[in-house]
Amino acid sequence: MAHRLPNAGDYGLLLLLSAIWGSSFVFIKVGVDEVPPITMTAIRLFLAAVFLLLVMAVTKRSFPKGKSVWWMLLASAVTGNALPFCLIAWGQQTISPGTAAILMGVMPLLTMVLAHVFTVDDKLNSRKVTGMIVGLVGLCVLVGQAALHGLTADLVAMLALLTAAASYGFNAVLIRRMQAPDKIAAVTMIIALSAVMVVPFAFLLEDPLTVQAGATAWSAVVTLGVLHAAIATLIMFAIIGRAGASFFSQLNLLVPIAGVLWAALLFSEIPGPNALVALGLITLGILIARGGLVLGSPAPLAEKGVLKP
Predict the structure, then answer these.
(1) Eight-state DSSP code of residue 296
(2) How far is CA 46 from its chain centroid?
(3) What percentage of the chain reaches a pLDDT higher than 70?
(4) CA-to-CA distance for 270 and 276, rounded, in angstroms?
(5) Phi/psi of residue 172, each to 5°?
(6) CA 283 to CA 256: how far, in whole Å?
(7) What share of the chain is helix, strand, coil (3-state, %, to 5)?
């Protein structure tokens, strides 16, 4: 499907969504300081599922049909929500929001590697490999200092976030195979399935009913569910519908930068030289691998996966 050239409204929605998803790292940090990570993730997914199910009911959408589609929805629920949401929340108990945002920025580069392995029409080329090497250098700049001190809590937390980024990348490849005509209905089912998965683990590994958190922490958790997971999903589809998936994929460049800015604004977290160099190199690597900014032109589907913390 051809799309017109993006206009100011499209860029406004793109910047709005990058600001929302970029602030997720701050809200996760606020919430996880008082609410255990799996419990927080379960509540977040439950609230998002309820909100989107209401949207489905109001707009009279039908549930996806077909056993193969539901198997894909189940797999996407694991790799696109349940696992990465839990890992990010767990990791942010230790590391700062700005560092988390930069680490998650490597997702598009990891997606390219996974697409090379698991697809037949989206292979690596010299441009992508060059971009990946540049991004890897940036990652080493950020993680290297922690790695020098051995298997510390900071390093383990960073590895958890990198695993979450890889999970998002695998999900981006996975959804290429999904045949679901109504994407909003499909995403609603993915989030609902994710909630069903995570809630038992919250009761098994934590004790949600005894959590005593303040109003600020609970407000952060509710915001993560309603705004960052549910409403932001609707904004995402609005952008794709208006300007196309390739234009929308530029969000992968904006979210880490927005995350660093939010961390500086709300947490007074001024990134050090290594963090700034890492952010710059990872961003440059993505730009090289993608061949520059995309303004609505076609792009391989595997590169349309999006970072949604």
Answers:
(1) S
(2) 17
(3) 91
(4) 10
(5) -60, -40
(6) 9
(7) 75, 0, 25
Reported as type and span, the H/E element at residue 50 is helix 37-58
* Tokens linked to 94: 């230790």
For the chain, the maximum distance between any two Cα atoms, rounded to a whole number of angstroms, is 55
Residue type, 81: N
Helix (H, G, I), strand (E, B) or coil at 5: coil
Distance, CA of 173 to CA of 152 (rounded, Å): 32
Rounded to the nearest 5 degrees, what angle is found at the Cα of 173, between the Cα atoms of 169 and 178? 135
Q: What is the DSSP string of 176-199?
A: GG---S-HHHHHHHHHHHHHHHHH
List, for residues 85-126, the tens digit of each pLDDT value.
Answer: 999 999 999 999 999 999 998 888 888 888 888 877 778 889
d(CA 199, CA 192): 11
- What are the structure tokens assigned to 47, written together? 């609230």
Write the CB contacts of 185 (distance below 8 Å, at least 6 apart in sequence): 56, 61, 62, 63, 64
Q: Which residues contact 194 (CB under 8 A, 6 or more apart)?
A: 45, 49, 77, 78, 80, 81, 82, 85
The number of C-alpha atoms within 13 Å of 290 and in the hemisphere containing its C-beta is 31
**What does pTM read for this prediction?**
0.88
CA distance 21 to 255: 6
